């Protein structure tokens, strides 16, 4: 906030540095769930950038993408979709169709569709996003693991369990190579895989996943951490005949 105040006083209100500060402050408010404060700042940042840089500049696409995320978190799906697709079009035009930022836009659109139950559309966009990061970073990059995990979630909710299992396992393998076996990403995906196994009544496999996930979370955050407690609950109920899963 201080940086924004200084820039607004020392520079013109439509200076690009002011736009940068507006976007950064908006991010802080958004991360705190203060959308009534974040969204007008995003809008101001967008207006300055569009005026100074033109409609098809990557920095314009970025602030549209960020405002779209804010709408997504508020479940304002139609508005989020509109901004995501505007951002995607600009990025494809200015950066090329196989740029990592294009992949980010495709991924966000995919998650938007998944949340609305539009699984066919979600799968199409997720696969396009995955293809780009594999080409840009290689098949064993953490960004690939994230996309694989997202695609697995899309299969999982459609009860395409065999496809989802393969992708969850591949995601875990990549993250273990990149970050080590004791990383939060590994623990999260293990919990997701455990939940899938429980839905298939494969309790032994589920218990193994929950046990590993619990060990990682407890070593990283302690047993009183909320994430650790959620996995411990899943671990405890994995041997029961009736259960209710704790998801992320």
Keywords, please?
248 residues, globular
Note down, in words, how this protein is organized:
The chain has 248 residues and is mainly α. Helix 2 runs antiparallel to helix 3. It has helices spanning 2-10, 16-31, 35-53, 58-73, 77-95, 100-115, 119-137, 142-157, 161-179, 184-199, 203-221, 226-237. Helix content is 79%, strand content 0%. It contains twelve helices and no strands. The mean pLDDT is 92.
Measured as a percent range, the helix fraction is: over 70%
Calculate Rg over CA atoms: 21 Å
Average predicted confidence as pLDDT:
92
* CA-CA gap between termini: 32 Å
What's the structural blueprint in terms of helices and strands?
Layout: H1 2-10, H2 16-31, H3 35-53, H4 58-73, H5 77-95, H6 100-115, H7 119-137, H8 142-157, H9 161-179, H10 184-199, H11 203-221, H12 226-237
Helix pairs in contact: 1-2, 2-3, 3-4, 4-5, 5-6, 6-7, 7-8, 8-9, 9-10, 10-11, 11-12
Précis, in short:
The chain is mainly α and 248 residues long.
């Amino acid at each position: 906030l201080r940086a924004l105040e200084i820039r607004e006083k020392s520079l013109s209100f439509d200076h690009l540095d002011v736009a940068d500060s507006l976007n950064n402050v908006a991010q802080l408010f958004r991360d705190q769930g203060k959308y009534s404060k974040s969204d007008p700042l995003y809008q101001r940042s967008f207006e300055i950038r569009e005026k100074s840089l033109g409609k098809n500049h990557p920095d314009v696409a970025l602030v549209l993408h960020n405002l779209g995320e804010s709408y997504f978190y508020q479940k304002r799906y139609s508005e989020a979709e509109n901004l995501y697709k505007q951002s995607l079009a600009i990025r494809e035009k200015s950066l090329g169709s196989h740029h990592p930022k294009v992949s980010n836009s495709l991924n966000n659109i995919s998650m938007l569709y998944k949340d609305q139950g539009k699984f066919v559309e979600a799968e199409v966009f997720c696969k396009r996003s995955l293809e780009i990061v594999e080409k840009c970073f290689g098949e064993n990059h953490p960004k690939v693991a994230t996309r694989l995990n997202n695609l697995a979630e899309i299969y999982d909710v459609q009860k395409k369990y065999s496809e989802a299992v393969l992708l969850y396992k591949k995601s875990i393998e990549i993250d273990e190579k990149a970050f080590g076996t004791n990383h939060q990403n590994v623990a999260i995906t293990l919990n997701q895989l455990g939940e899938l196994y429980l839905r298939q009544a494969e309790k032994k496999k589920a218990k193994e996943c929950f046990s590993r996930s619990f060990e990682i979370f407890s070593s990283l955050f302690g047993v009183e951490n909320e994430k650790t407690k959620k996995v411990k609950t899943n671990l405890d109920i994995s041997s029961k005949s009736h259960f209710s899963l704790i998801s992320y």
